[in-house]
Structure formats: C-alpha cells, structure tokens
Task: structure prediction
Amino acid sequence: MRELESKPASAEGAGGTGPTRKARLDRLTELIIGAAIEVHRVMGPGLLESVYEECLCYELGQLGLGFQRQVDSPIVYKGARLNSGYRMDLVVGEEIILELKTVEVLLPVHSAQLLTYLKLSGKEVGLLMNFNEPVLKKGLKRLVNYFREPSGKLISSASSALSRTRRLGVSAVNK
Result:
C-alpha cells in the first residue's frame, strides 16, 4: 500500500449516519466524478488504467482530497486476518472506493469485484469507472453496500444477508 498521497479528508462527522453523512458522501462522489470527467476530457479513451489512475490522483490532489492508492484488502477468516491479494485502486477520503477500468464494456464481474471490496473493507460507497468509453458518463457506476445491521453492526455471513432486505444497492450514474 502506498502512503497517503494528499492531505487526509476531514474526519468531521465520520462514522455518523443520517443526512449529514449521506450529504458528505454525495458531495465527495460529485467531486470525484468531476475529477474523473476532467481526466477523461483531457486524455480521452484508449490509454492504460495506470495512466488514468495517475492523472486522477493528480486531480484529487488539486482538489485537496485525501486518498490512498493500491490499498491492500485483507480478509478475516475464522478470526485470522489473511492477505487476500486484493488491492483497491483508490480509496478517497477513507470512505469511497474507486475501481478503475479500461475495458471494452463493464461486465457483472467488475461490479462483483467492487462489491467484494466494499464488503471486505466495510465501506459503503464505491465508484466503478471505465475510462475506455467515448463519454465517461456511460462508463460510471455507483455501488452502495448496505451490508450492515440497523445498529451499524456488520452482518457476519451471506446467509444472514439473504434473510434481510435492502442490503445491497447498485445505481448507475447515467443521467
């Protein structure tokens, strides 16, 4: 995992729920998408994922947003913390996971990958971005992890998640 590339985001309201947290996440999502659109506008489609990551990090830094690159995502198995080999491309403000792609078309496996990162990290919001689209907006997906009990406690197993409603939400950014 690389060190924090920019100053960390404010911890004000961190861990809270309700409209303040939602509004903060929505605003942060807007800033991230704006930065990604700027990168795509300048660079266009057809480059390597690493190029878009580098440029996006530059834009996030210009906005003063804290982020981490290539963040290890270990798993907890029977109480043991194990290295899973998963790496999240970017985590912005310690709250939003970005998964960058440069593929012909986003597939369900790409969404599943981001959902796995959300579940393993306990984060609520992720953005899947395919920079290989003529218009970036068509390659954006916002995924939301509702994998928590109302008390804020994480659900411990997939079977218990199936017995509850509204645990996972996926929304495309297309407007």
